[in-house]
Prior knowledge:
Helices cover 33% and strands 11% of the residues of chain A.
Amino acid sequence: MDGIAPYDPTTQYTSEPAIKEIGPEGHDIPLWKPVNMSRRAFLRGVVCSGTVIAGSAFLFSTATKARADERAVERMIRLTVNGRTHTVDVAPNETLAHTIRYRLGLTGTKIGCNHTECGACTVMAEGTTIYSCSTLTHRVRDKEITTVEGIAAPDGTLHPVQQAFIEELAPQCGFCTPGQVVSAVALLQKNPKPTVDEARLAMSGNLCRCGAYDHYLRGVMKAAERV
Amino acid sequence: MDVMHQFELYQPSSISDAQAILRDNRDAWIIAGGKDSLDWFKTRVMQPPAVVDISGIEELHGIREADDGGLWIGAMTTLTEIAEDAMVNEKFPMLAKSALVVASPQIRNIATIGGNVAQDTRCSYYRDGFPCYRAHGNTCYANTPTAMNREHALFEVSRCVAITPSDTAPALQALEAVFEVQRGNRTLEVPAADFFIGPAIDITRMTMLERGDILLGIKVPGKWAGSRQYYEKVAERQSWDFALGSIAMAAQMDGNTIADISIVCGAVQCTPRRLRDVESLVQGETVDEELEELVKRVAARGAQPLNYNHFKIPLMENLAMRAIRSLA
Ligand code: FES
Ligand code: FES
């Protein structure tokens, strides 16, 4: 009986690791402590430090041939996103969603379908909404791009649309929300007092798999009262 | 995630530059808004080594009034610009409507009228890369006893049963638009009826555009400006979706009687289908219930449905009838 009973976590639990790890010189290795860093900050750090490698590998790993191809030459362009001009290398076959997410680290813009079928990737190019997943970055390099990160005021005050979406419980899983926010803001910039039908039309390019359409629509109408 | 193949991207700023690039790269692919093209690339069904983005060519943009009271619309004019343009709405409201019902707002903001009329068919077998007739193969996968062919053609089938996906095409054909095509040093003026071609003429393309051709613009003649017009599209979803049937009509009224009429149905064959039977039936008539009944009877005459698209026959009949009824 001694020592062979099954391990009982309720009585035998200790906060120490069951086996003490010993360092190469026989010293105790300090216990691992979680770093206080949000997942998002962690991701952004990785994205920024690994821009060139990660970005290019992602683009070309599955591409036709593994060899360096003269067609894939990246060109350095200036891209203005949310009022900041970035200098960034962009491949000819690179989409805007790719550039803003993986090169600039602005991961607020989501890629849902990557085929112009959902609207999660909606951004504004000079005030008009476009699907960034299906727009070549080179095509819009002269345009002012606004992503969901550029919607709130610089001091963090939410845009009326964002505030109204929260109040109306519009986001369920939230994956479509960045796109919905951008579409709604673009509508109100053009037409601050839309009718419900106008709002519905303007939001009709944003799919919500959670089906929270009415909440989003109410949010748009509520925001329209405040802008 | 679908990453596109590698290609060389050209962004010419003049038509002659674009032509030179197209001459040097026999396999170059022209993109306009790129909404359809990038899909082809992402699915890897098409992998052109060179892509020419012609949206930067200034001459291809804009809407201008023509001397005959009609309009000239640049091929790179976006669908949103057309749907919102005051002149288009005043003269050709149905063209504005047809541009407004295309896909979704974000697509219309960048998709062009040139791309919309020149886009390829949506037959899912063809799109998925099946080696069908249209893809230079020797069979049609959409016309077999078990094939899913709800969306396919009722008329003018010649081996291929694919249909035209364009919403603006029926409207342009009903308005007797003329397409300006740059071929070499010549500018061709092609009437809509000849611009769209069916499988009997060439099974591998939907328009008369050939390699190296550039669509410059579309002239909508003044003939139907300010006439009574009607446009309706039926699709499974109100946004994004392609038409299961659409109707475009322009009519000149003389009091209560129909003096002249042009009526075209979309999504029932490879090209927009002009409903000549309906036109000759209603010419000189006043609209009443009896006429509506007759229109319903002739609208889809000669249709040869496939396994799953019978529903398109009553759909087409009702669309034609509703268009005529709007003149009452
Ligand atoms: S990710 Fe761009 S539309 Fe779905
Ligand atoms: S909130 Fe989940 S997809 Fe819209």
